[in-house]
Amino acid sequence: MRNAPGHYTATAKWLHWLMAAVWISAWLLGFSAVHWHAVNADHQVTFWHKAIASTLLFLIVLRIGWRLAHPAPELPASLSPFMRRAARHGHLLLYAVALLALPVSGWLWSSVVGRPIMVLGLFQLPPLTAEHGGMAPYVKFFHTYVAWACGALVLGHGLIALKHHFIDRDEVLKGMLPARRG
Ligand code: HEM
Ligand code: HEM
Question: What is the C-alpha separation between 94 and 101, in angstroms, rounded?
Answer without folding.
Answer: 10
